[in-house]
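Chain A, query sequence.
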Amino acid sequence: MTRLQGRRLPLAVLVAAVAALIASLLWVAGNGSGPPGPGAMTGVVSREGPVHSMAAADRAAGRFADQWDLHVGEVMQFSNGYYAELLAPDGSRATEVLIAPGNGAVQLEFGPAMMWNTAYGMMPARHQTSAAVIGPRQAVRIADRWLSEHHTGLHAAEPDRFPGYYTLHTLRDDHIVGMLSVNATTGTVWYHTWHGRFLQMQEHPDSG
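Chain A, predicted structure.
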């Protein structure tokens, strides 16, 4: 089950969290071939046909990114589907998407990308009342503390900053296992439970 930890959240955020959780369970149950989920509410679901390689996932994410004048950075393959970072023209990280292998649907990632992203998510900046107060080093400390309590043996890699939050790879003996996110205002931790087992990753030259 998706884990949230931190301050009490407004009702609207809790409703969105439940919607994201249900969508993530559908994604895992259908291995990416089920309904597109809450991403459809933002009008940004794109279907590109079956995706069975990193190159095809990259192309699908790229066509999706073109809608917002973004481009693809890191692409990862997990046992439940593909994941990609989308970058702004200046190279900064904009948001995160999932690519379903079964039907090629591309959508905003469940959880933080939908709920915490202050530029591309369901809760845009005009609805945010708190400024970011957590820096990258503190985000790592928060992530490591959470992992020590919930996933013994894992630790956090360096954080990737997105609008309103950080996403960090989780590591075991310096090998990627999964990922989690830390809210840049509240320090809330959201573990990405929907990916499954990590398989491989590729990075574009301008995604560092």
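Helices lie at 11-29, 54-66, 112-115, 136-150. The longest strand covers residues 175-183.
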